[in-house]
Design brief:
The protein has four helices and no strands. The protein has one domain (about 10-90). About 75% of the residues lie in helices and about 0% in strands. It has helices at about 10-20, 25-35, 40-50, 55-90.
């Protein structure tokens, strides 16, 4: 019988965080990291049960979503400023 490969808790946490932050599919991240397909479902459950130092997996996702929302707002503001500047420049 084939024995399941053991991964360190740090590797599990970092690989799941990479999956979340990269926006790539699970299969693509598995290929990049040399992991078997479908392992992230199990890793996410383990991390949720064990509560990582930074909080649960849901907390990590929520923080990432908040960061991205702030970035989108900032970029929209920059875009609006550039549009106004272009309008002023073209009217001269």
């Amino acid at each position: 019988m084939k024995q399941r490969k053991q991964y360190t808790p740090e590797f599990k946490r970092e690989s799941v965080q990479y999956l979340i932050s990269s926006g790539k599919s699970q299969n693509l991240v598995c290929q990049e990291l040399g992991l078997p397909n479908g392992i992230f479902g199990r890793l996410e459950k383990e991390l949720d049960q064990n509560q990582t130092e930074t909080g649960s997996l849901q907390d990590i996702r929520d923080k990432r979503i908040q960061e991205l929302e702030r970035e989108v707002l900032n970029l929209k503001q920059q875009r609006d400023i550039l549009k106004k500047a272009m309008g002023i420049t073209l009217s001269l």
